[in-house]
Design brief:
Two copies of one chain form a homodimer.
Chain A (H helix, E strand, L loop, with lengths): L8 H10 L1 H20 L6 H9 L8 H7 L4 H13 L3 E5 L7 E5 L1 H24 L4 H12 L1
Antiparallel strand pairs in A: 1-2
Helix pairs in contact in A: 2-6, 4-5
The structure holds a DNA duplex.
DNA sequence: CTAATTTCTATTGATATCAATGTAATTAGT
DNA sequence: ACTAATTACATTGATATCAATAGAAATTAG
């Protein structure tokens, strides 16, 4: 027989107030909503914007490095590409030199959508800087980078 | 006819390096994996741990305030509760005084699972503090809170 | 005291996320 | 060259996330 287990309420308060994972997930959801709302007129989510922006390179990258850059699982990237391919914004082609690799590139339509999104990103991000104490933005980014 | 649109590569670099939303999503994914891995032995994800911990209260809370605390959509909370109910770790009952409301509470089994998870959380979180420069943890939390 | 409004939650459909697993292509070891 | 190990990616199944919508219960306006 197992005794009844009681976690002290003080432990709950401690976790609630100090858990960095919780705080980051909370902020991630809030920021996702903020950018999703702002980008909705051009038909992009925050994640799609970041992904497509990371594909705007002189040379089309393969999937692995893109997944690493975004700190996401490779299978997540595979799934995330599908709606973008379906809309004709991203092309996925095979690398002739190494047939395991896929090369990811933006279509002209994809570039147009992304270009329309840039000013939205700029204004949204600017409003975000106002929400943080002066100078915290840079340090915040460095701290976040230390976690990823 | 539409001209070809070219977003300067420098813009891509700027967004990649400065976008707070991207940085937070990256950190959120990395921390989620870290805690998911650590909590796997007790059968919890980071989100389930945070949710269940937020239910460890003297009085069972309704859904609205819990969703607000976690900064998540109410429909997300409804979905997140389902696997926990199915496993018999969380009870969802009706409030007799206001039949619209559901009261969320942990079962004894749920409390036992949560109790087993607490030491895992403690050690994982401690290792996390080592990854950050001294004193950054508190300020990081405050900055994140300003965003949510 | 009824009707309109507000509050609280559930359902549906789409995308996001990851673990586990499988497969094809390349590389390394012999 | 042949086999073993590695690399790069896809598929499946489960959970997470939110918008849009709908429903029921409670509150408020009149």
């Amino acid at each position: 027989m197992s005794n009844a287990v009681e976690i002290p309420f003080s432990t709950t308060i401690l976790v609630r107030d100090t858990c960095l994972c919780l705080h980051v997930q909370r902020a991630a959801r809030a920021l996702a909503r903020l950018f999703d709302d702002a980008l909705r007129p051009v038909g992009l989510t925050n994640g799609q914007f970041s992904l497509m922006m990371s594909l705007n390179r002189p040379e089309p990258p393969p999937m692995g490095p893109v997944a690493t850059l975004l700190a996401m699982d490779q299978t997540t990237l595979t799934a995330a590409l599908k709606p973008l391919q379906r809309r004709g914004w991203v092309n996925v082609t095979q690398n002739a030199k190494d047939k395991r690799r896929r090369l990811l590139s933006l279509t002209p339509e994809g570039k147009a959508v992304l270009a329309a999104a840039v000013p939205i990103w700029e204004s949204t991000h600017a409003s975000l800087e106002d929400a943080l104490p002066d100078g915290d933005m840079g340090r915040l980014r460095r701290d976040l980078q230390a976690l990823a």
